[in-house]
User: Fold these one by one.
Assistant:
Number 1:
Amino acid sequence: MDLFTGGHSGCRGCGAAIAMRQAMQALGPRTIMVIPASCMATIGGSGLKTAWNIPFYHSLFACAPAVASGVRAALEIRGIEGVKVVSWAGDAGTADIGFQALSGAAERNEDIIHVCYDNETYMNTGGQAGGTTPLSAWTPDTPAGKPTKPKDMPALMAAHRPEYLATASIAYPRDFIEKLKRAAEVKGFCYLHVLAPCHRGWGIREEETVEMARLAVECGLWILYEERQGRQRLTVVPEKRLPVREYILRQQRFRECREEDIEALQAEVDQRWQRMAAGAGGEELG
Amino acid sequence: MRELLNGNEAAAEAARLARIEVLASYPITPAAPVMERLTGFIAQGTLKARFIRVESDHSALAAAAGAALAGGRTLVVTNSQGIAYMSEVLYHVSGLRLPVVMAVVNRALAAPHSRFPDHGDAVAQEACGWIQLFCENNQEVLDTVIQAYRLAEDDRVRLPVMVNYESYIQSHTREVVEVPEEEIIDGFLPLNRRAALDVDNPRAINVVTGPDLYMDYKYRQDAALRGAAKVLAEVSGEYGRLTGRNWGGPVEGYRLQEAGHVLVTMGSLVSTCREAVDQLRAAGEPAGLLKIRAFRPFPVEEVREYLKGVKTVTVLDKNIVYGSGGALAREVRAALYGEPEAPPVFSYIAGLGGRDVTSADVCKIFGLTQEKRRAGAKPPAFEWYGLE
Ligand code: SF4
């Protein structure tokens, strides 16, 4: 049985919905899902209809990890075991308005999984810029291109020393599913950050959602890794890294991006990639 | 057992007797001792509960909502800035019909900064859909916290409850409090558990709701809140039979027999007014007191009934709704409007931010009303009493 079924009201080719359908394969039916304000919170149902076949609560924007903490506490005191409690938020509900509650839950090492599905814009309100929006990206409120760099959310969460942390991409479903399964086995706080493009915000065609998620990895902009006890491991290493230009020029949102911006980004990506590759060998993490 | 307890200790004892399962709170002055005492009980093993050490008041109520959605009996403790910060969550909890109980140690809202008592914090949330009960002393704090769970979990109600008592005047002042035996409370308070988030019975909660459904949800929510007044009277009656203490339903009268002139107030001013009424009666004045125990739901019918035939009503408000006046006076006037021979309502704002109001002050205010009545003056919209 599909746990997040077809018939939801997301756009065709929605990266968020793809991420959720992949995730539910890993998480299974004994999962309680808390999602704050976001596309994902609203496309799963309206009125008396729903696409959810698991318990789901659409929480307030700033507090999904706190709600999940409460759910876990009640289950524990009631002696109910074997249930995964997940707070699943967009980039705003994770990196911006939701960051305080997320940081608190991570520091308390709550036995929950937080998944950030990142489309790098506030799509549910029309695509405004937020904390993970890339430098020079066009949005309705950065018409000349976003003037500042995005937050490195996985690094921020790594600083909380979670039990398990991983990045993922909807173009690599097996990698994502394995990581979620690993998180589900871990007791304590886990953080996953999945790149889930939104064709409307990115200015691509709807059938290009997955392709763009793959390109982000192949050009080294989005690095797939996992981290336990401070040790990092790359989980996907592109055979040959493509130039970031190929990724940037495909997306309308980068129309204000100048040649020197692309060169600077390429230099940054090269540096980061070398650092990651040097530090994170390929061996399995225990 | 009789013990010397301050309001915070009384609230914590009540939560222990209610066998709360999840405590989610963020420290705030002067409410934090409630959670400190409860975490002590948890550490000693006298209370089997989970404490969620949240990073804010907003998350405190969010965590309590999560726990209640998963079927846990929960307590939150806060006041003033904390409850203002929680505001949007308050509306979620009532809209979801979750039986969360919250101790609110009423404290004035900034600015300017204050840690002293008034009801501004609770009154600012008057439309949030919670049952709002006010206590006059520490015994009532203990008894009301226990009753709050019965009320909140009653199938006819299913709504959250705030139990209000004032900072320092109550939170930090010790009184003799009778602490009931555990068996009595266990009998009075069986857990009526309803888990909305349940893997064996999956439901989608708080999905997008259009104009075809939203209003009907709200009608039911409001009807349940209004109906809670009757359930409170029932619950108090049963509690009274078990413990000998019945604090009444949503209102309670004091020396209202042949009282031509009635004081109306809530919270700690009630006990001050009791003394004042005794003094006024001793001086031959036909004074009485109507205590408002439930500010929400506001007991319109009861207020009409109790104030029938009365000549003047004097309302003391420990809050100010800027540009409008005292919240309680506004409610009393609205209840009486259109009643045959409705008495004039004189409204006084007093005791904000901890300014002391003694029984002598209450007698003085009572005198001010009488002067105006004798002069045939119409009651002003409201007046401030006790300005420097
Ligand atoms: S706007 Fe973007 S994220 Fe939202 S439903 Fe459509 S494709 Fe998905």
Number 2:
Amino acid sequence: MSFDPRTIGKPVYQALQELRDEQEQNQRDEAKRKERLKEQKNQAVELYTYIATWGLLRLKAEEKAISEDKKGKKEVVQEYFKCLEILAEASKLSGADGLNTLVDMDVDDYLGLTGLGLVLAQEFSFWASAVYWDIKGGD
Amino acid sequence: MIGNLVYLYLLSPLHTGGATQEGNLLGIARESHTDLPYIPSSTIRGKLRSLTPETERNQLWGNTIDDVTGSSSDTNLTQGTLWIGDASILWLPVPSLSHGVVWVSSPMLLQRWARLNGKSEKAPEPYSNNFAQGKPVYLKDAILKSASLKPTSDLKICIPQSEIGSIDRALILPDQHCATLIQMSLWRQVKVKLGEHKTVDGGFRYEEAIPPDTLMYLPWGVTSQATKQAEESKAKFNQILANNAVVQIGGQESLGRGFVQQWSGIKQEVAV
């Protein structure tokens, strides 16, 4: 059956859960681990209002601009564009070429992608509360 | 079901609480089938009831739970003689670098309005507009090139006029893009909680609202209860509207939210 109500939720849940697992397993420094998880959660929650206010193009640019010491934030934005790429069946959205892809896009395509991007961002916001249920503060 | 229409021109942001709060966002009520913001009829009906003289309230709007459980002789809840529909968006302002503000609508929104307004004309095509004159239009972070825009002079019939309504730059977008633009043009306020030393306690949260200068409308009519009182009830309702040109709807009245200029569409139908 082609109708699957999990189409948008599934990749988002998997992406956030993998990000969290990676920190839990590989980050030995507890303070740093907590900080990263908090960054991940806050960024996932913030995506919707960021895109609704500033648009996809700026979020993509933000992905580059986030400094390495805010790695949790950066990872969530990267995962967001990976999910968008899969759902929109678009090519070269994630990764370094993404900004050019968005710049070169036809206005119809860009607005359409923004619509999907907003729904996807709401999904990130929902799953942030579920995946990072125990991370408090700053949300 | 063709009712009379009441138009609402928002003078300030209007917030009617949504069913859920996701993440850090306090959302607003949305239509289930379009996801577009709307004002639930119950919100408006409650407001109008409170503006109705006490002696007419139960006739127009029915009695209340208090009437049934209190010392009144009523034993059942009764229906009033008027019904009120949900308020839908007709034109919504979008910031534009090239034109200041551009009001957008879509064929779906215009056709819905025409249906309730008893009109049968087809909605103008997407990208019809009454202002671009061969120049591109900047909308948020999108640019609509002049070649894709369709200048038209007869958009006026799609814009209900009043002394307050100043919608002079109107653009019709395809349904799907209009929904996205509306989503991106909602009024959002960032809020922080300050601690006792005026330092930020916790993170941001956001509240959504329908922006000022949005034009909305709602249908109304008489219920099957009305029978002999139909004309009388209509007259009373029109009097309530005439007496209350500005009403406050939704939450946060103390912050100046939800003030709306309203007018009856009956005169408008004659004018168009």
